[in-house]
Structure formats: C-alpha cells, structure tokens
Amino acid sequence: MVRAFTAVPIPEQISQKLSQTAKQINAGRPVKPEKMHITLEFFDHLNPEEREKVEEALNQINLEPFEIEVKGLGVFPSKNYIRVMWADVKSEKIFELNRHASQHSVKSDNDHEFRPHITLLRVDNVRKGDKKRLHQALEDYHDTSFGTFNAEEVNLYRSDLKPSGSKYSVLESRKL
Fold it and tell me: Is it true that the peptide bond before 163 is cis, omega within 30 degrees of 0?
C-alpha cells in the first residue's frame, strides 16, 4: 500500500514566485517550491492492483498540452477559518484533464469537489497577526498573475511521510 496522488507538475519559475510570495506573507508554514503541484486526485492507501488501474487511466489520456495561468490567491476551508492558502489555477482544460485521469474504479480519498489550486502555505497554529496578514494577502494578490505555463504532463506521485516532512517520487508519468 502506498500513499499517492495524481498531479500536474508546475515549472520552477512559477513555484519560486509562489514561494517568495508565501515568505512575504509571513504566516503559516510555506510549502517548499519543489513540492508545489496541481493535485488531481489523492489516494491514502493504494494497493498494487489499484495503482495499476490509476496508471492505466493516465495512459489512456488523450489530450493536447494546454495553457494554465496561475493568478490570485484563495483559502480553504473559509476566510474565517484558514488552514490552507493557495494560488488559483485558471484553465477550463484542467477540469477535462481531471475527468480523464479519474476514469478508473479506484476510490480516491478526496473529500471535496475538485478545485484546481497550488498550495502556498498551511496554517496549523495561528500566531498573533497571522489572520490579518492572510486576509491582507488575499486582497493584495487577488489579481496578481504568477505566470502562465503549458501543462504537458500528468504524474502519479508516491508520497512517503518522514519526520522531516513528506517526500514525493514519480511512479508514472504521462505526456500530453
């Protein structure tokens, strides 16, 4: 059994801009640039048979590369109770990619409707002033474009939990 997720990798130049933005906001725990991606589906316990089905679905994807703009910030679950701050993903095609990548019989562990985003920071313990900084960031970056890129692949990643944080490795990659 492996902990895994399907995702679109993002270019380093965009992840670096997002990382700098997270540092400027100065609240919560910033996500390392090399761990930034657009998650399609998450699987807490994927057995070998299920992994094969997910990989097969990825290999059946028949889409051309498409453009994604990373623009503006948002939060989960709400502005009053912020646990995650993310950058918004602007692309209608990402929803189509998600549908194609999900064409398998394996139950994902997603507990919400698909909302394409790139996680910038996680808020575990709210320090004094954090909420104000997070709300100000939502306002300040609401119309900021962090860049545009072509989505050219989708990957199945393994996520190993370590004391130092999670470590991701690519199990399967599908070029668009």
Answer: no
Residue for token digits 């709210």? Answer: 126
**CATH number reported for the structural domain that contains residue 164 in this entry:** 3.90.1140.10
**Half-sphere CA count of 46, side-chain side, radius 13 A:** 26
Phi, psi angles (nearest 5°) of residue 133: -65, -40
Domain count along the chain:
1
Collapsing DSSP to helix, strand or coil, 22 comes out as helix
| 170 bridge partner residues | 157
Structural domain including 99 reads 2-175
Bridge partners (DSSP) of residue 145 are 71
Nearest-angstrom CA–CA distance, 63 and 48: 26
* Cβ contact 27:121 at 8 Å: yes
* pLDDT tens by residue, the chain, 176 residues: 999 999 999 999 999 999 999 999 999 999 999 999 999 999 999 999 999 999 999 999 999 999 999 999 999 999 989 999 999 999 999 999 999 999 999 999 987 899 999 999 999 887 788 889 999 999 999 999 999 999 999 999 999 998 888 999 999 999 99
Compute CA distances 49 → 4, 22, 42, 101, 130, whole Å: 13, 38, 16, 16, 44
